[in-house]
């Protein structure tokens, strides 16, 4: 690349870093790319770092030493995330979204790229201090959320199937009890899809009793894998369920009340925002 003036260099450097989250980029790479001294590159990065902090875009980590460089960590403050989720919860609280069984219609929201990007960034922020090998979800509407989260963490997505596909090769299948319907169902995962010993982040779009997530956790045991975190977009506690089938998880929204007869629904920010809400 030819030598650029500082404003253009900063713009190009910012785009490069945002497109490669959680990737260590040596300062020598930028110095060679822009035909500039390392001291100038360091000054540019200081400007970008300050802007990221002001605009709540994320964190720019600088690692010193011969093997050092700079790394962009997508991160949004909990207060900023809370404000985003308040708007989403207001949309989810519309009476016409009520579906039979106490579920919510969310396909339109989960189909909006901007909203998906925001929610994925919130999940990535919540788990940014941990190292994961992949994001896992089951083949439902949670797939876009999983990809949005994985994009900000810069890791692969693993999709658990309801039934084994011939294109997946040999697979491991288990039976699990659906927490809401109490029915025995099957899920499977190709043996090549996940390496043994992986640290996995589970992302799901909707959780009522936790049966599906519990099933994924049991499936991961067959791969000697570890569940490092669980993120749920919307949780809705089942009144007929004495306790959830999982314990440690974060939710971004909480479906607290559904009155099908009177067409009333209440959705508020989930347990990730408990410190802000003071509950």
From TrEMBL:
Residues 5-74 form the Bacterial purine repressor N-terminal domain. InterPro entries: PRTase-like (IPR029057), PRTase_dom (IPR000836), Pur/Pyrimidine_PRTase (IPR050118), PuR_N (IPR015265), PurR_Bsub (IPR010078), WH-like_DNA-bd_sf (IPR036388), WH_DNA-bd_sf (IPR036390). Keywords: DNA-binding, Transcription, Transcription regulation. It comes from the Bacteria. The keyword Ribosomal protein does not apply. It holds the Pfam family PuR_N. Residues 108-247 form the Phosphoribosyltransferase domain. Belongs to the purine/pyrimidine phosphoribosyltransferase family. PurR subfamily. Homodimer. NCBIfam families: purR_Bsub (TIGR01743). This is Pur operon repressor. It comes from Marinicrinis lubricantis.
């Amino acid at each position: 690349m030819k030598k650029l003036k500082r404003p253009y260099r900063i713009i190009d450097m910012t785009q490069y870093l945002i497109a490669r989250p959680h990737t260590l980029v040596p300062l020598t790479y930028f110095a060679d790319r822009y035909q500039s001294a390392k001291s100038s590159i360091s000054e540019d990065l200081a400007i970008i770092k300050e802007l990221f902090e002001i605009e709540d875009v994320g964190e720019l980590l600088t690692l010193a030493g011969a093997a050092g460089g700079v790394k962009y960590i997508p991160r949004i403050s909990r207060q900023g995330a809370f404000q985003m989720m308040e708007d989403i919860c207001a949309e989810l609280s519309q009476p016409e979204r009520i579906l039979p069984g106490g579920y919510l219609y969310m396909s339109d929201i989960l189909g909006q790229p901007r909203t998906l990007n925001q929610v994925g960034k919130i999940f990535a922020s919540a788990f940014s201090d941990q190292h994961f090998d992949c994001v896992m979800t089951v083949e439902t509407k949670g797939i876009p959320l999983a990809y949005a989260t994985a994009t900000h963490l810069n890791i692969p997505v693993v999709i658990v199937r309801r039934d084994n596909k011939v294109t997946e090769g040999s697979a491991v299948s288990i039976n699990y009890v659906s927490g809401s319907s109490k029915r025995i169902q099957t899920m499977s995962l190709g043996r090549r899809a996940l390496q043994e010993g992986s640290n996995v982040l589970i992302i799901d779009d909707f959780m009522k009793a936790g049966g599906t997530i519990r099933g994924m956790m049991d499936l991961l045991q067959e791969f000697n894998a570890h569940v490092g975190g669980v993120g749920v977009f919307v949780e809705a506690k089942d009144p007929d369920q004495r306790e959830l089938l999982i314990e440690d998880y974060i939710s971004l929204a909480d479906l607290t009340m559904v009155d099908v007869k009177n067409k009333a629904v209440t959705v508020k920010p989930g347990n990730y925002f408990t410190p802000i809400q003071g509950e």
